[in-house]
Design a protein that fits this description.
Elements (H helix, E strand, L loop, with lengths): L3 H5 L27 E6 L2 E6 L3 H4 L5 E5 L1 E3 L3 E5 L5 E11 L3 H5 L4 E9 L9 E7 L2 E13 L2 E8 L8 H8 L16 H4 L7 E4 L11 H9 L3 E7 L22 E6 H8 L5 E4 L1 H19 L14 H4 L6 H14 L4 E6 L14 E5 L6 H10 L4 H10 L10 E5 L1
Helix pairs in contact: 7-10, 8-10
């Protein structure tokens, strides 16, 4: 186990690289699967195409991807004075369950970021929209402040008409594309910024490694006997939060909701080959499972709050059990509670010094300089390898960030 002081002392400046704006992909390729693929295996780098992924994955691989769907989380209200107030929905407060909050009719509460908040002195913001031929008025009222976010109470005349909050977001909201694209949301983003397998509403950012998959690529995975399984991590706005501190020990990671079916945990226990995670969100979800199992080893009847994976847990918790035992602990916990899915939250920070316990390979994009996602990749391939990979990509015309090209990294 790496010493916590050594991890916290890592300088984020050591994970920097020059990224000209013209190398940031502003839109995806028309044919997603035709993007470049940096294939890394055994220390060797090759340039391939993404459609080749099924043939490049090791035999009997288990491919695990995040089925979260990006919601229209950005709402704009115009005041009578002409000022525009932007409300960005981060996570549900009342009800706290994602599925329940999207089905509410009439009232719900979200934790939100508020843009141009100084122009919003008091009172409710309102706007009216037509949904399924019916006129609906949405009102937003500001509640308690939590750090840089606010509790926003949303009310709409939907109870009688059975208009859900999902209906409201679909009619009024915008897909929140990443800020580093430096452009406004376009109509094409409503499909471009979703994976083909997304179906669980809740994210405010896409798990972008999965954007390259098409139905044809997934079908080829099936044909080659690659087991495909889904988990859920709802991506928060914190994924774009830059590391502003000199040392990563002073950077607070954000919490994210995770959901893993019991059947998937059993598939990992019994996996006949390597486990390949699609995207850093799947990586964080899967690697969090080990520490949840470790908590249950010490406290079998731990409550939901105690099962939360905190930021530095991997570097402070003695890892005394095998991965299989940790996963079996979760299965046993679910069985005792007659549940078929583990649901919780994770704040996991993966940085060089982290020991991967479940993930044998990953598909990911090229990440921002000085980001926690770049730290995660460096932890997987080694501090001495990530820079060579990024230099290769820069020299060979790869496109970077959310709509850019991909990497397949195998240990």
């Amino acid at each position: 186990m790496a010493l916590i002081d050594d991890i916290r002392a890592l300088r984020i400046a050591d994970y920097d690289y020059p990224l000209p704006d013209e190398r940031i992909a502003k839109h995806p390729l028309t044919q997603r699967e035709q993007c470049k693929l940096l294939y890394y295996k055994g220390g060797e780098i090759q340039e391939r195409k993404f459609w080749e992924v099924p043939s490049l994955l090791p035999e009997r691989s288990t491919l695990i991807y995040n089925n979260t769907r990006v919601i229209n989380a950005r709402l704009r209200f115009r005041k009578e004075t002409g000022s525009t107030i932007e409300i960005f929905c981060l996570e549900p407060v009342l009800p706290r369950d994602y599925e329940q909050i999207f089905q509410t009719t009439g009232h719900c509460v979200w934790q939100c970021l508020v843009g141009n908040s100084k122009r919003w002195k008091q009172g409710a913001l309102t706007q009216t929209v037509t949904i399924e031929g019916r006129e609906v008025t949405l009102a937003a009222t500001r509640g308690e402040q939590r750090g840089n976010a606010w509790e926003i109470h949303f009310d709409w005349d939907g109870e009688q008409q059975q208009i859900t909050f999902a209906d409201v977001l679909g009619a009024i909201g915008e897909i929140p594309i990443p800020p580093y694209l430096n452009r406004s949301t376009e109509e094409s983003d409503s499909t471009d910024y979703q994976t083909v397998y997304s179906h669980i509403d809740g994210s405010v950012a896409a798990p972008t490694a999965g954007l390259h998959f098409t139905d044809e690529v997934l079908a080829e995975c099936d044909r080659r006997g690659i087991l495909r399984r889904e988990i859920t991590l709802h991506v928060g706005a914190g994924t774009f939060q830059p590391v502003k501190s000199e040392h990563i020990g002073d950077h607070p990671m954000h919490y994210e909701f995770i959901s893993v079916p019991r059947a998937v945990i059993m598939d990992i226990i019994n996996a006949p080959g390597p486990v390949i995670a699609v995207g850093t969100t799947s990586v964080r979800t899967l690697e969090s499972l080990y520490y949840i199992g470790q908590i249950l080893e010490d406290t079998p009847e731990a409550d939901e709050e105690a099962l939360t994976v905190t930021q530095w847990m991997p570097y402070t918790t003695p890892c005394q059990i095998s991965t299989e035992k940790a996963l079996q602990n979760i299965v046993d916990y679910l069985d005792r509670h007659h549940a078929d899915t583990y649901m919780g939250s994770t704040q996991l920070m993966i940085a060089p010094g982290f020991e991967y316990r479940i993930v044998d390979g990953m598909i990911t994009n090229f990440h921002q300089p000085q980001s926690t996602l770049l730290l995660l990749v460096a932890a997987f391939v080694g501090q001495d390898k990530w820079r060579g990979m990024y230099d290769y990509a820069m020299q060979n015309g790869f496109r970077f960030l959310s709509y850019g090209d991909a990497q397949l990294l195998l240990r």
